[in-house]
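Field reference: "sequence" (input) and "structure" (output). Example, Spermidine/putrescine ABC transporter ATP-binding protein:
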Amino acid sequence: MTEERSCLISDATVPVVELKQVTHVYVTDREASLAVEDIDFAVGTGEFISLVGPSGCGKTTILSMIAGLLRPAAGQVLLQGQPVNGPSPEVGYMLQQDYLFPWRTIMDNALLGLELGNRVDEASRERIRLLLEGMGLGGKEHLHPSQLSGGMRQRVALVRTLATNPGLLLLDEPFSALDYQTKLQLEDLIAETLRERGKTAILVTHDLAEAIAVSDRIIVLGRNPGHIRRTFAIPDAIREVQPFYAREQPGFNELFHEIWGELEASGAKE
């Protein structure tokens, strides 16, 4: 079955997402706090990048601005060359928790995004059924979230995120609540799924090995305020194999320690 075309029109000359000198300030009744300052990077079509850094460096703030949930105090966030002015169906957002509605079946949870856009029909139901089947959830459409394991629930959340066929996926620590074996399985599944579908993705994670295993590039952030310290390109020998096997590739450990050193320097100096 032919998949619906994403709303996000691909143009190889224009980054899928671009941040230009982005700064954000959180303001309360008592104070103003500079969260991130002069964030500047671009992500190309089909690229998978990870944001890593100490707590409080603004990783989730950056995702929220890309998703249109926050507006930067200064600078520009562009999606396919156009300013981001609010949430868009072109962007899928997958969080640490699955946020499935317990009273809805797996199929109805997966269809939620399409339902909100009045795009549910027999063709879309069949497409979601095939997506669920591809995630190892075939025959479970009628079950409720309480009847699934944590890993299965995250697979449903991924299907729900992919259902509207976004061109860009934002992944905010989607594996952190899972046991290690399930986490590794989902890393492989998500990386393979996004690669097959030509999706662009930005992952926020505290797991450095995970970031190296799934990414094309890693952006290391510092804090006080959040800023880019350094960007690492992942060697072809690592990024072209499944995440599970990437950890076994020559150069993986050396790269891990180099990035870890950058993170430790960030924590020691800031």
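Residues 1-9 have pLDDT under 50 and may be disordered.
The two ends are 52 Å apart (CA to CA).
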